[in-house]
Amino acid sequence: MDQATLMITLGALFLLGLAADTVGRRSSLPRVTLLLICGILVGGSGLDLIPPEVRALYDFLSVMALTMVAFLLGSSLTGKALKHNGEAIFLVSLAIVLATMLGVTVGLWLIGVPAPVALLLGAIASATDPAATQDAIRQSGSKGPFVDKVRGIVAIDDAWGLLAFSLAVVFAQMLGGEGDAAALSEALWEIGGAIGLGAMIGLPAAFLTGRLSKGEPLQTEAIGIVFLTAGLAIWAGVSFLIAGMVVGAIIANLARHHDRAFHEIEHVQWPFMVLFFLLAGARLELGLLVEIGLLGLAFIALRTGARVAGGWIGGALADVPPAERRWFGAALLPQAGVAVGMALVAAREFPQSGEMILTLTIGTTVLFELIGPVMTILAIRRVQNAG
């Protein structure tokens, strides 16, 4: 593709994103949902206006955008925040993951899905979309204990999800007579290695950033740390989301000489997010919504109900206000790339059910990506109104 086509396409996408952002700011519609819808309209399921070479940028943009999101989510895990909300974040996140996995697995098994496949789909259902959730929170402009808890839950949710999925793969293989602990070892490395990498980058960054410009971290410092973290995580085969979160948490807790470590990332994050969500929408295949049929509807109902129930149970165990308990699950409905990544692994390990797993996961992800941010904003507003 020539440079003129590339620049014209990217320029048009940025302006389309600006229009969606403007509508979102002047209405109650989440910007994420609007960007995804715009992406669908100009993508393969719509007018098919985006050249394949531009769509190929999605993988790079998704890694950069999500690593930035992970930084910002990690920055919410300060000692002060964990002192006030740490127990609730831990209990609610764990309860939602366990309830989702158990509820979806048992529900699908009862309607006739083979036990190994039901177990895998239950684990896949536990994944969330930190980018959509974080942007919905930012667009709401809300602050307070509930928002702080949701941010913290999203920050550690994928770690629980990765562990749950890896255990599910091992048990599913055992049910099929092919037990193998390799998947569990890979998960432990993906999580443990990411924590170690995040510490290796975060500790020196906490002391070195913000010293060249009177206590304010430079934009080049912020971008450099993001690229370094993402690149090394991919090279080492660990989770760049968890690595980014750990780096963010360490800098936020240890960088005493400045308090604006993440403002520079916030300044450069949105252009990446615009292209990320537009190209994500362009990749969505609406035809899969028809193919998933009744099984897909059952999966959607089971995942939604299980997350609401898990949020209530975890909130009760943590003794949070009843108004918050009712809305944790709804606030954490968005689901995207992590779930699709899990589905690809499951399809590789269980090729006889691979097509069904992929179709169901991608098809339901379309719906959860569109309605999830709406529910996140609704949950935040309902909790605020109740308070």
pLDDT averaged over residues: 80
Structural class: mainly alpha
Alpha-carbon Rg, integer = 20 Å
The H-and-E topology, N to C, reads as HHHHHHHHHHHHHHHHHH
What's the β-strand tally?
0
- Portion of residues in beta strands equals under 5%
- Fraction of residues in H or I helices: over 70%
Distance between the termini: 54 Å
What is the number of helical segments per DSSP (H or I, 4+ residues)? 18
Principal-axes geometry comes out as globular
Low-confidence stretches: none
The profile of the biggest β sheet is: none
Can you put this structure into words, describing what you see?
- It is a single chain.
- The protein is mostly helical.
- The chain has 18 helices and no strands.
- α9 (182-208) runs parallel beside α11.
- The longest helix is centred in the last third of the chain and has 33 residues, at 354-386.
- The model has no long low-confidence stretch (mean pLDDT 80).
